[in-house]
């Protein structure tokens, strides 16, 4: 889909010309100014292949100074810019809408320092999450964030979306573990908030504005993250469950019985398991049930952790809260169970055009949304599935259909947003608003909050060159 489908008009920006390209080549070198259409194809299309822009320029700076010079030039010339990390975003925020210049962190991939005593890692924004995590293992540390796109997403992108993911239950949101951010503002000013301090109450915390602002307020160039110790003992259980209410009882019992070692609680429904089996040939290690729950523990004493976990599993099987289950203590088995959960997003891409929703809801109504959506759509779909971060009250509702069409689009939206607002939820728990959801912001945020967001945008980026058509509702482009 393109801007036309969404009925968006190009803002009053300049178009990059030969002298702009010369200026960029002068800053980053010839090889790092890409103008070849075939090379730009991947950068113009999002991960789920639902939105496509038409940028003709991709810039690959290596340093903060280069980013600063590029943005100063773009601001003076009123050239619009789309910041891009690993391009794994799921709301169309990471790709241009028209001909915005793509500014990529691809080459900004240096780890600057790791302090094994404080656990603070400082690195450039283009470090890939999985690679950063592997590097940290040498220091017995891990990144406090994990998600299915770890092999491609960049830490700068993670911070710009305030990504949640699979470890949030244990380590909290990036708003707590990100200690510092360095960002370049639209006019080229370098905002150095790259603190390594755990505590710093000297006035307003400007870095929080960069976290989750999806490239609309500044370009993140470096980050400082508080990283936890690598757990000495990790175990995973995969359970088959008949009813969603039982998942909630299991969640409560897991919190009570596993306490401090509980590190993840995820769920998928039976249709998700069907899809990862059908499209990716992944094998479900237990029988067939309506729901599946993945519980992970991370602790420091394997004997203690395994005893706790075995007794928990024995209890829930005896009481029939879970109908079946398997415990994984070895790395390969744990990986294959995690893969079943993490691959749902990919399996859906093979099932047709995907309408993707990511909502926060009170846990007791979470799965009602999936039932109600199925009823409401009266078979207009290939699949309607529910999965997500059960322990965080975050449901991923996805609808696939043979291809995009307006009838199904208008049957789904605003239905899902109205449903969410009616149940006091958030229309974006972790993916952000990007291009696709920005005009639905008022289902979750008050008019006053939105007005303040706009004032902040105007202060940081008066020419509106940073990621236009994203996050803020349409009427200010
Ligand atoms: P991009 O997709 O490149 O960009 C995302 C947004 O950030 C865009 O608006 C972009 O303009 C902006 N941006 C990127 N880099 C910068 C920068 N340096 N400065 C300023 N702005 C920038 N998300 C979750 O929260 N939890 C999950 O569990 C999760 N799982 C996923 C699983 C899969 C298989 C996939 C494909 C995606 C998943 N996501 C998840 C969504 C996505 O991976 C995250 O949003 C991720 O944080 C994006 O990082 P990225 O580097 O790919 O950013
Ligand atoms: C996940 O939890 O799997 C991701 O957020 C991706 C998705 O929503 O599909
Ligand atoms: Zn998720």
Present the secondary structure layout.
Layout lengths: L2 H4 L11 H11 L4 E2 L2 H8 L13 E2 L4 H14 L3 E4 L16 E4 L6 E5 L4 E5 L4 H9 L17 H7 L6 H4 L2 H4 E7 L5 E4 L13 H4 L8 E8 L6 E9 L2 H15 L3 E8 H11 L10 E9 L2 H17 L5 E5 L2 H12 L1 H6 L3 E8 L7 H10 L5 E7 L4 E8 L4 H7 L2 H8 L24 H14 L17
Parallel strand pairs: 2-4, 3-4
Antiparallel strand pairs: 1-2, 5-6, 6-9, 7-8, 7-9, 10-12, 10-13, 11-12, 11-15, 14-16, 15-16
Helix pairs in contact: 2-4, 10-12
Keywords: FAD, Flavoprotein, Oxidoreductase
Protein name: D-2-hydroxyglutarate dehydrogenase, mitochondrial
EC number: 1.1.99.39
Q: Helicity level, as a percent range?
A: 25-40%
Strand content: 15-25%
> Biggest sheet, open or closed, and with what strands and sense?
7 strands, antiparallel
User: What is the straight-line distance between the termini?
Assistant: 20 Å
Tally of DSSP β-strands: 16
Number of domains: 4
User: In the CATH hierarchy, what is the superfamily of the largest domain?
Assistant: Uridine Diphospho-n-acetylenolpyruvylglucosamine Reductase, domain 2
Rg from Cα: 23 Å
CATH architecture of the largest domain: 2-Layer Sandwich
CATH class of the largest domain: Alpha Beta
Q: Enter the CATH topology name of the largest domain.
A: Uridine Diphospho-n-acetylenolpyruvylglucosamine Reductase, domain 2
What order do the strands of the largest sheet run in, or round the barrel if closed? 13-10-12-11-15-16-14
Which of globular, elongated, flat, extended, rod-shaped describes the shape?
globular
What is the residue-mean pLDDT, rounded to a whole number? Answer: 97
What hetero molecules are bound to the protein chains? flavin-adenine dinucleotide, D-malate, zinc ion
> What class do helices, strands and sheet pairing give?
alpha+beta
Q: Which stretches are poorly predicted, pLDDT < 50 over at least 5 residues?
A: none
Quickly count the helices.
18
